[in-house]
Write a structure and sequence with these properties.
Helices cover about 40% and strands about 15% of the residues. With about 280 residues, the protein is of the alpha/beta class. Strands 1, 2, 3, 4, 5, 6, 7, 8 and 9 form a 9-stranded mixed beta sheet that branches.
Length: about 280
Amino acid sequence: MRIDLHSHSAASDGTDTPAGLVRNAAAAGLDVVALTDHDTTAGWDEAADALPSGLRLVRGMEMSCTGRGEDGHPVAVHLLAYLFDPTDPVFVNELERLRGERVSRLRVMAERMAADGLPIDADRVLAQAGPAAGRPHLARALVEAGVVPTIGDAFLDLLSPKGRYYMAKEDTPLSDAVKMVQTAGGVTVVAHARARARGRLLALDHIEELAEIGLGGVEADHPDHSDADARLMKDLASNLGLFVTGSSDYHGENKSVELGRFTTDGDALADLLDRAHGVEVVEG
């Protein structure tokens, strides 16, 4: 089986509609795809309704969290959550808060740019982004306005955490998120924990602590991981009794990575499914 457990649609910061994403997943020869938009489940129903025959859909989400960095200070971390009950009241409230943080942050960043004379309209950017607003939406607006040639260039300076327009947001503490997803019947995987190009890294001993409270797995094979770091994550998972995933982190035209660039073993998927008791996998 070809299994890709990390992809994004236009419900957050991808460019494919949820329906288009599952069609593209089938065309890419996948047997299983997970839809994991940022802090939202808004694309679940559309993806499930459009699911091609023979393709299985794992409904998930990528949650914005804060963990302990290697330097001991807080660091932004993404947590993949799979097959949780999206109606769990505690979870619903936290996701609403996270989406509010996203919108407020993007507005501030866009307004800072406009105040400096950049041709950016905050209201227009937010209207196009929707409730799961993120920096890629602002990056696309910068490209469309001719400020930068590519989305990647926007992140080198204007949208960089070290740039003058950047604003942090208050994300969910990583340990709280793992417990929250577990209570909602879901399974968690730490996403691209060794993505060095994104900045500071999550401390490995924090992952050890998460394993003790119910973390399911770690993402190892990922476009932002070197071969050495992928091996490091696999060894860590083996030592902690976690399963290992491999994924494309597909964003459509917002990134050059194709669906199925990296994949997950069937045994890891079976482990994930054994642990989940929130919602079922959708069969095409």
